[in-house]
Amino acid sequence: SKAPSLTLNNGVEMPQLGFGVWQVPDDEATAAVSTALEAGYRSIDTAAIYGNEEGTGRALASSGIPRADLFVTTKLWNDKQGYDSTLRAFDESLGKLGLDYVDLYLIHWPLPAKGTFVDTYKAMEKILADGRAKSIGVSNFLPEHLETLIAETSVVPVINQIELHPQLQQADSRTCHAQHSIATEAWSPLGQGKGLLEVPTVVAVARKHGKTPAQAVLRWHLQLGNVVIPKSVTPSRIAENYDVFDFELDADDMAAFAALDEGKRLGPDPAVFGG
Ligand code: NAD
């Protein structure tokens, strides 16, 4: 079966479950993305800094899947923030992917101390107007960064991709996103596989449904309305992570997951990352 879609604030449909390729070397990305496409994934999340846009693009090209059925996201890296450098970096990403448009282009980190995300986003508005990105958004923006961006630019981001998993549930960001009709996309949705998948509550809920801990966690995200982009290079896990559309967590399960929030960040704090 196929991942459900979310309708973004600009009317574009985005698959709610996609495939992330952080830390997948370029020469392994083609095989991993091909495996994901064969398993049914249609949304792929890469970034300039991952160094695998070319390998990802090769898998897209050789898949035979019509371009309109794919949803490709890439991200602008920190050292390219600024109006002109964003336009140039976008050209480079598009070239590496071998595409003539991306579905979603994101600012990777806000870098609040640099003060360049507004100019960066204005370049992305131009890319959007030119039809070379179908949607634009941000990643790792705290509510204060979103408020500044929305006040100073014209296009409300469709999505904010943030670290989010049962041990970091991000209530403040989710509330802010809901107020602005911004979708919430969870990075490291499985908590990078470290610890979270052994938490007794997660194991128990999974067992109750005859599913794996990873599947139970992904189901929790989907039922909250998050977009999720789990990563794996192991074919059996790639398939397992997509096999989550045939069961549902009940209210007790959701309440048990809600109790796991402990504000546990695995990645950098966006308020200070990048200086
Ligand atoms: P994840 O939470 O998806 O965990 C991936 C790891 O979990 C794998 O490497 C593997 O060790 C384990 N795993 C995966 N499937 C499993 C399964 N079925 N059973 C057991 N273990 C399993 O972590 P991630 O890669 O950090 O995040 C996913 C994606 O999010 C990335 O690939 C990337 O696309 C995106 N991301 C974005 C940012 C950002 O700053 N915007 C930062 C990190 C990640």
UniProtKB/TrEMBL annotation:
Residues 17-261 form the NADP-dependent oxidoreductase domain. The record marks 75 as: Lowers pKa of active site Tyr. Keywords: NADP, Oxidoreductase. GO terms for molecular function: oxidoreductase activity, acting on the CH-OH group of donors, NAD or NADP as acceptor. It comes from the Bacteria. InterPro entries: AKR, Aldo/ket_reductase_CS, NAD(P)_OxRdtase_dom_sf, NADP_OxRdtase_dom. Substrate binds at residue 108. This is Diketogulonate reductase-like aldo/keto reductase. It comes from Streptomyces candidus.
